[in-house]
Design brief:
about 350 residues; alpha+beta; Jelly Rolls; Phage tail protein beta-alpha-beta fold; eight-stranded mixed beta sheet; 22 strands; flat
Length: about 350
């Protein structure tokens, strides 16, 4: 089965005979269904009236393992949403373009139709190969979703929880949640809307020295490796921040209430910030970049993530500068012109590399 034919099926461009061939192929093996689902859920949202990409756009955007069935039963596949060669290429001038995974109604309807077809054809399929229920997919099979600089993402987890990913963020999650908890791993920045399940809390592991225990809530977490601090902000519900002392033993280091935020610095105690403006914490999801007396080194980090640009600093005195400004859909040139206008910084841009210097 070729990826081109699967894409034709997904976009509705396939002929009846091709649709039949795809459905037969999907029904032969649960790996085929998983591969198709992964391919189906990769959409390009590229400033279009509708969020569904055309066939050609999907071809350009798709970067999923070509031979899914090669993976072992306990494999760990990675979906790379990078904007490098072979990945997703998104124009950096617009912040509200998303790579959508596990997308909503059309994707769900398509899956339901396929599963109904498989159900109706189960007797025929069973004579060819054993039919394995979706619930039999092993927990150990995990997905890693990565959004590169200049790219944002969305994924719906197996329990229906929703996660929005900011640029340069990695999320790892299983095919389905088993056991007493729902465990995922995040590094970067993400907004979680967790489906409530009092008997099965979600544990969000981070790349810092803490985890987040959730029953059902909405919160934002930021844990970039190259940031001085990590921050967790609660929008609604309640969460526990926990630290593992040793394997099997943990301690709750903080309990958050809505509008509260914890800033965690390396090797230091967390700092509670009460009554934080949560709309500003979630502004990145709406494509809004907010700086409020932000040190220039933090400004540079954010611009690198948002625009996929590289910065070179010629005069480190400029790092003493702070910036207060809001940006929505401005290009990197427009942003740098504004910074040049209101700070003692000048710049040059060549081949996506921004060189910063102090005004003479």
């Amino acid at each position: 089965m070729t990826k081109n034919l699967l894409l034709k099926f997904i976009t509705g461009a396939a002929q009846e005979s091709e649709k039949r061939a795809v459905l037969e192929w999907i029904g032969k093996n649960p790996d085929n269904l998983r591969y198709f689902t992964g391919l189906k859920n990769l959409w390009v949202y590229n400033n279009m009236p509708q969020s569904l990409a055309t066939l050609e756009e999907m071809k350009a955007a798709t970067r999923i393992t070509d031979k899914y069935s090669r993976n072992s039963r306990y494999s760990h596949d990675k979906i790379d949403l990078s904007d490098s060669t072979g990945g997703v290429n998104i124009k950096k001038s617009s912040f509200n373009r998303y790579i959508i995974l596990a997308a909503a109604s059309v994707a769900i309807l398509l899956t339901v139709n396929i599963l109904q077809f498989i159900k109706n054809r189960s007797l025929t399929i069973e004579t060819q190969v054993p039919v394995i229920a979706l619930s039999d997919i092993p927990f150990e099979h995990k997905h890693t979703l990565y959004t590169n600089n200049g790219v944002k993402g969305f994924v719906e987890l197996p329990d229906g929880s929703k996660v929005w990913l900011n640029s340069a963020t990695t999320l790892t999650y299983p095919d389905r949640f088993q056991g007493a908890t729902r465990e995922v791993m995040v590094a970067g920045e993400a907004l979680f809307e967790v489906v409530k399940d009092s008997l099965k809390p979600m544990i969000v592991n981070t790349n810092r020295d803490f985890k987040i225990e959730v029953l059902g809530t909405k919160f934002n977490v930021r844990t970039y490796e190259n940031d001085y601090e990590a921050q967790t902000t609660l929008i609604s519900g309640s969460i526990n921040l926990i630290r593992e002392i040793k394997k099997g033993e943990r301690v709750i280091i903080a309990q958050l209430k809505p509008t509260e935020s914890f800033v965690i610095r390396d090797k230091n105690a967390p700092v509670l910030i009460k009554q934080i403006d949560t709309t500003k914490q979630m502004a990145w999801k709406q494509g809004l970049l907010i700086f409020e007396s932000t040190p220039m080194d933090e400004v540079i980090k954010k611009l690198e993530r948002w625009h996929g640009t590289q910065f070179i600093i010629e005069d480190y005195d400029i790092l003493k500068t702070r910036l207060t400004a809001n940006f929505r859909s401005e290009s990197i040139v427009q942003i740098m012109e504004m910074i040049k206008f209101c700070t003692p910084i000048e710049y040059t841009i060549k081949e996506n590399i921004v060189t910063l210097n102090k005004k003479s």
